[in-house]
Amino acid sequence: GALAAAAKARGETGDFFGLQEQGQSIAASAEVRMSLADLDARGIEAMYLSADVTKLGEVSVALDHVRETWGSVDGIVHGAGVLRDKALVDMTPDRVADVFGPKVGGLSVLLEATKEDPIQMIALFSSIAARAGNAGQAAYSAANEILNKVAANEAARRGDWCRVRSYNWGCLLYKAPSPRDG
Predict the structure, then answer these.
(1) At what angle do helices 138-158 and 106-113 cross, to 10 degrees?
(2) Beta bridge partners of residue 126, listed in sequence order
(3) Which letter, b or e, does each residue of 63-74 get, where b requires 16 or more Cβ atoms within 10 Å of its Cβ?
(4) Helices (DSSP H) in the chain: which residue ranges?
(5) Which of 105, 106, 131, 162 has its CA 20 to 30 A from that of 94?
(6) pTM score, two decimals?
């Protein structure tokens, strides 16, 4: 409502989707500021830099800022993901690209941008969908399985110097039987 009123006061006609997008951006910025303030209050030094993980130039600029501030980059945590759920027969190349871009392409960009850094840890946020699949998520499942394979390759290539993990998050829960369960 406040964004619509501000647009009206400026003599603009705000469209609903544009105002919604603007509101989401403001909320996200507030969340980032609150998270950084919370970390600062705990004595944890952190910074927030925005970059498109699929663009080597943007990632390189952000990482150069990190290196100037704190020195070498020693670890990678990659958690990008986009869902474009659709039945396999309805999947389009654009939908597949939307999913693969940030998850697979983004990891490739991060590995390229840090190839000169002494990386000691790589943590990739994959999904249980890579192994179990989910209806309508063929592209998402495939992209996550590629992350798993890249993790295995990086672990073998880097050896004991670097700990590499691909975490297959998801809703699949396993409860170990209790002795009380018989």
Answers:
(1) 20
(2) 168
(3) beeeeeeeeebe
(4) 2-9, 16-41, 56-70, 93-100, 106-113, 129-132, 138-158
(5) 131
(6) 0.74
